[in-house]
Write a structure and sequence with these properties.
The chain has 507 residues and is α/β, with parallel strands linked by helices. The chain contains 15 helices and 20 strands. Strands 7, 8, 9, 10, 11, 14, 15, 16 and 18 form a 9-stranded mixed β-sheet that branches. Strands 1-6-5-2-4-3 form a 6-stranded mixed β-sheet. A 3-stranded mixed β-sheet has the order 12-13-17. The radius of gyration is 24 Å and the shape is elongated. The chain starts with 5 loop residues before the first strand and ends with a helix.
Length: 507
């Protein structure tokens, strides 16, 4: 298998005009009155080429657009990439992140070996330089990423690496940018790692192999430890939810626990619980054949937790975090769990199975109950849980539900900062009432309506009095087609969001 493209990231004190690079990226706002200082200097050296391009209407600065102007003997760059930033009054850190992603994607497409970013110059102090450095690093990883490790032959294939630098002639600015760049590089690498794992198909990664990967990461990253429970150990503990879901597959389920103690035993512990169904056929309640191949991405919540744990340990954050990843493969067979079965879960609660395709909540309930038993102070679960959430919010935001208003607001703040958007939905008693069974404590599906809310209300029963939040990332786990910023496939959604939340807690 081919390695995913390597990004070599750094800052450098350099003059914009004389900087030698394959591609120099500079930003332009659509509502700017004339060129800013950097672009005006470049335009002068290029004999008015940028102004001519704008006057012809070939580049208007609209967000998501780019244009290339070729260099000459008067400048060091072989090409100038003009990156549209949209309206300046609407600009945010996400604008910077997307612009960097756009530039990195273009650099890979034209096979540039080096990319120099001067995007921060257009913002002229509008954004904090450290934060700008962080999001440019994140954007660079987002835009340069390609999942092509199984492509053995391709005409005009991509380069194996991309050297990216953020440049400025002011050493003081470079120092501030570099501080954020180091952080953003760790987060960007963790997200790319998560995208690769999520993109891998079920014949390459199953629960056992995911558990082995978690152990490998724990050995490779200082501060992480990993414990894995196999099916026998889960049976001894009474983890009936995950065992039921995995009962139809030859690949047995695994319960993965990653631990990072960066704040000492006296400090609170946060649990991240991620759904990792390595392939979801729906089980006996089988899904339609159309797009079932995408169900390899039903492990995205668990992978986001794994990526976040890696980032937290590499950042050496002063927090205590447990990453809990229940993993199974949901397939139909003679040994599968069935509609009508009653399952005893780790918490002791019993669940009547009405639909085997509502399997995510059956593994998460054991994960959440395990976090409670570990006396975690806060629990956040993340999962591609319901199609109903995608119906409600589309592919624009994840659903956010929970039992603690302060926790909800903390996650919303992290969402705003990370660019991974969320929207609050209810999960109160009226939804929980729908999940009561007449022959067991609970049933695993509610009525046709409000499916994201009833699913969250089901999970809430296992959190007890512990502060709890639920992220339904159905619709956010993948890019169905390539955009100006990103390649199609797994998005790695949740890594930036959860890492940013933990960074804020650490502060």
């Amino acid at each position: 298998m081919k390695e995913i493209i390597e990004v070599k990231l750094k800052t450098r004190k350099a003059d914009f005009i004389t900087c030698k690079t394959d591609l120099l990226a500079a930003g332009l706002f659509s509502d700017a009155k004339g060129l800013d200082k950097l672009n005006a200097e470049l335009d002068q050296k290029l004999g008015g080429a940028i102004e001519r391009l704008i006057k012809l209407g070939d580049f208007k600065g609209k967000e998501g657009t780019t244009a290339i102007v070729y260099g000459n003997d008067s400048i060091g760059a072989k090409r100038i990439l003009l990156v549209g930033l949209g309206e300046k009054k609407k600009a945010t850190l996400d604008t910077v992140r997307n612009a960097a992603a756009n530039a990195a994607k273009k650099a890979v497409e034209i096979k540039a070996e080096t990319l120099s970013l001067a995007l921060h110059r257009a913002f002229d102090g509008k954004c904090d330089l450290a934060a700008t450095g962080r999001v440019m690093a994140e954007g660079t990883y987002l835009g340069s990423y390609r999942y092509d490790e199984f492509v053995t032959q391709r005409e005009n294939g991509r380069l194996g690496s991309l050297g990216v630098e953020i440049i400025d002639s002011d050493a003081g600015k470079i120092k501030k940018i570099d501080k954020g760049l180091q952080c953003g590089g760790i987060i960007g690498r963790a997200q790319s790692y998560a995208r690769t794992l999520a993109n891998r198909p079920a014949n390459v990664i199953n629960p056992e192999k995911l558990a082995a990967e978690a152990k490998r990461i724990a050995k490779a990253v200082k501060g992480l430890t990993c414990t894995v429970f196999d099916e026998k150990q889960m049976a001894e503990k009474g983890m009936g939810g995950i065992l039921a879901v995995g009962s139809g597959s030859k690949s047995p389920p695994r319960f993965i626990v990653l631990q990072y103690n960066g704040a000492g035993k006296s400090k609170p512990t946060i649990a991240l619980v991620g759904k990792a169904i390595t392939f979801d056929s729906g089980g006996i309640s089988i899904k339609p054949a159309s797009k079932m191949d995408e169900m390899k991405l039903d492990k995205s919540g668990g992978i986001a937790v794994l990526g976040t744990m890696r980032a937290v340990a590499e950042l050496k954050l002063p927090v205590n975090v447990i990453g809990i990843i229940p993993s199974a493969e949901n397939l139909p067979s003679g040994t599968s769990y069935r509609p009508g079965d009653i399952i005893s879960t780790f918490s002791g609660k019993t669940v009547e199975i009405l639909n085997t395709d509502a399997e995510g909540r059956m593994i998460l309930c054991d994960g959440i109950a395990y976090a409670v038993k570990q006396k975690c102070d806060t629990i956040i679960d993340i999962a591609t849980l319901t199609g109903a959430c995608k119906v409600a919010l589309g592919s624009y935001m994840a659903g956010l539900m929970g039992s603690d208003e302060k926790l909800i607001k903390q996650i919303q703040k992290a969402a705003e900062e990370s660019g991974e958007k969320v929207w609050p939905l209810p999960s109160g008693d009226e939804y929980a009432e729908e999940m009561k069974s007449k022959i067991a404590d609970l049933k695993n599906t509610g009525s046709r309506w409000g499916g994201a809310c009833t699913a969250a209300a089901f999970l809430r029963q296992f959190a007890g009095e512990t502060k709890w939040a639920h992220l339904d990332i159905a619709g956010m786990d993948m890019f169905e087609r390539a955009t100006e910023y990103l390649a199609e496939g797994s998005s790695g959604f949740g890594v930036r969001l959860l890492t940013t939340y933990l960074m804020n807690i650490a502060r």
